[in-house]
Each structure stands twice: as C-alpha cells, then as structure tokens.
Write a structure and sequence with these properties.
The chain is α+β, with helices and mostly antiparallel strands and 341 residues long. 23% of the residues lie in helices and 39% in strands. Helix 2 packs antiparallel against helix 3 (122-148). This is Efflux RND transporter periplasmic adaptor subunit.
Length: 341
C-alpha cells in the first residue's frame, strides 16, 4: 500500500513538472498584425463563349446546293442571300410561264378591243381575262417556289457555322447555316457544386481568355441551371457579356464570379485560423481566441470579430502550443509575404 502511494505521488509530480515545463518553455513564433483593406471573394469557373440565340438557316424545298455566298465568321444583313439551291429547272419554268402570261395578256387586250367594236361578247372577254389572271398567278407561284431555293438572313448577325457543301443534296428544313443574332454573346460555365450556393443571378463576373492575354472583360450572371450534373458534380451558369468584346463563339474563358466584396475589412491569412480559432500572443503568452469569419479572397480571410487591428496573431496556427504557454515572437509584415492563398 505504501509502495502504491509513493508511485502515485511520483506520477503527480511528473505531470506537474510536464505542465510547468510546457507553460514555461519558450517557443519562438512568427506573429502578424491583422491587415486592413479591401477583400474580394470570387468563385472560379471555366466555360465556353456561345451565342445567346442561334438561328438555323435552311431551305423550304429539297434541292442540290448550287452556290455558297458567305462563310463562317462573316457578318450579314437582314434579307441578304446566303446560298442557293439548283434552280435551272424552275428558272426555265418561270420563263415559259411568263411567256404564256404575256400571250394571255395580249389576247385579253385584243378581245377587249373587239368588244368595244361589238365583234365579241362580254363572256368571251371575261374568259380571256380569267385565263390571263391564271397565267399571272402561275408565274407568281413559281417565283415563290424559286424563293424557297434561296437561303436568306432573317436578321443582321454573324454566320457562326456552315453545314453544307456545293453539290450536296439539301433536304427541306435541313440547316445549312447557323447564325448568331438578336442578342449578345454569353459564357456557359461549369461551377463546382460546393461553390454554387454562393452564386446569385446579377453578380458581376470578370472574364479572361487565353486568346487575349492580360485583358479582362466584364459580364454578369444571367441564369443558373437548377439541375446539376451528378457525374461532374457541377452546375451550369450562364454569364452574359457585353456586345463590344472581341470574344468569339467557341473560345474558352476563365470566369471569376464576384460573390462578395468589402472595401475595408480586417484580414488574416488562412494559415492563422483553425476551426474558428486563432492563437494570439498576450503579454508573452499564448491565448486561444474564437473569431467569426466573413468572406475569403486572395487578400485574406475577413475577421468580423474576436481580434483587434493591433493584436499579435500567430501567422501559422500551431496546435502543439498550449493556452498560457510563454513564447518569444518576431513580428512579420504578412502583407508582403506569401499568404498561402
């Protein structure tokens, strides 16, 4: 019994010594003051430039593609002829029908003159007029059919794709061209499902493209697809961009969606925080302080409360340091060092 009591006393003394040593051993730690300045929180995504509206241009009659008058990337105006199908047969038919209509008109006028002289009856003149009108209608109908063989731009726009070659048989309503018109371009971007709760319609977007290094273009979130891709674990976000940009359909674009912004915030590097706490140095001793985070950007993590601007905060949270442990410290200017962001 006496031996057990001695061992217990020894253990208590050993633990007390360990605690005393832990509280009094001096580690040398790097500390910083929280910085003050602007912070921007953004969600990164990649996407593709595409037209908001794509209009298919197709013939209303089957035929062989005879001529292509425009190509991909070309600007066109409303009413401009873009291509035509083989029309030699229908042109010949129009020529014959026009000749018949001309003869019918002459016959009508001749019989009208005879009517005035009393040489023919009104019924004969009416019959001649009817035959002339039928001939004219045949010409107009065939000319309309000729129009079915013409592919015409419905609006001002840009030809973004061509799907036909000369000599190819084109069916009714088979698109030969795709036009971008009537609306600005947009970027269709994929946003990770972990970030999508931060993204809202109307948020500003900064866009970059490898084709134009060093240049930034503005846009805004137009819509968010409500159903995500379970395989890619992402959601599609449509970003509308301004008309006057050199971005072209099909280009890859990098998008930074601005989800939060503060002009003046108290900031710490992410490495200073662990599970909502920071380690502060107060009178040469470690103190664990609970903090409330705001938005996070490349500038740092916004601290809403818990520390003051002049506080001494460990640049890197060290879980091995104990509350109340004495430390030596060196003050760094973290705004000029690598934040680890």
């Amino acid at each position: 019994m006496k031996r057990r009591l001695t061992a217990l006393i020894f253990l208590v003394l050993l633990l007390s010594a360990a605690v005393f040593y832990g509280l009094n051993v001096r580690s040398n730690v790097a500390v910083i003051h929280p910085a003050q300045g602007p912070v921007v929180q953004a969600v990164y995504a990649t996407g593709t430039v595409e037209p908001t509206v794509m209009v298919p241009i197709s013939p209303r009659s089957t035929g062989v593609l005879k001529e292509l008058l425009v190509d991909e990337g070309q600007a066109v105006t409303k009413g401009q002829i873009l291509a035509g199908l083989e029309d030699s047969n229908i042109l010949k038919a129009i020529e014959e029908l026009e000749a018949k209509a001309t003869l019918a008109e002459k016959e009508f006028k001749r019989k009208t003159t005879l009517l005035e002289k009393g040489a023919v009856s009104r019924a004969i003149v009416d019959q001649a007029e009817a035959e002339w009108q039928v001939a004219r209608a045949s010409v107009e109908r065939t000319q309309a059919e000729l129009g079915f063989l013409r592919l015409i731009a419905p609006e001002d726009g840009i030809v973004i794709r061509r799907d036909g070659e000369i000599g190819e048989v084109i069916a009714i309503n088979q698109p030969v061209f795709w036009m971008s018109c009537c609306a600005p371009l947009r970027v269709s971007a994929e946003v990770d499902e972990e970030d999508i709760p931060l993204v809202k319609v109307g948020q500003a977007v900064l866009l970059r493209a490898d084709a134009f290094p060093g240049r930034i273009y503005n846009g805004h979130v137009k819509s968010i697809t409500p159903k995500g891709d379970p395989v890619a674990r992402s959601y599609r976000v449509r970003i509308e961009i301004a008309d006057q940009t050199p971005l072209m359909t099909g280009m890859t674009a990098e998008a930074n969606i601005i989800t939060g912004q503060k002009d003046k915030a108290l900031l710490l590097p992410p490495s200073s925080l662990r599970a909502g706490y920071v380690l502060a140095v107060d009178n040469g001793k470690i103190r664990k302080v609970a903090v409330e985070k705001g938005i996070t950007g490349k500038e740092g993590v916004e601290i809403l409360n818990g520390v003051a601007p002049g506080a001494l905060i460990l640049q890197n949270f060290d879980p091995d340091l104990n509350e109340g442990q004495k430390v030596d410290y060196r003050l760094l200017d973290w705004s000029t060092t690598d934040h680890g962001i």
